[in-house]
Amino acid sequence: MLCHFSSETARAKVLPNLVLILLHSFMWVHVEESMILEKLESELYRLILQMWELPQFIK
To answer: What's the number of CA atoms in the CB half-sphere (13 Å) around residue 43?
Structure first.
């Protein structure tokens, strides 16, 4: 009975922590992903601007 009780309390303590860790890691990956996407978008925008200005330089 005591062993069963201790495993239950351990599960009750570990599970929420595990969920929190998973949530944190998921959010971190999501944040990194959005930062990478933002960087790519700005790079793309810069490239398009350069290509847009290029024909004006050739004239």
So the answer is: 6
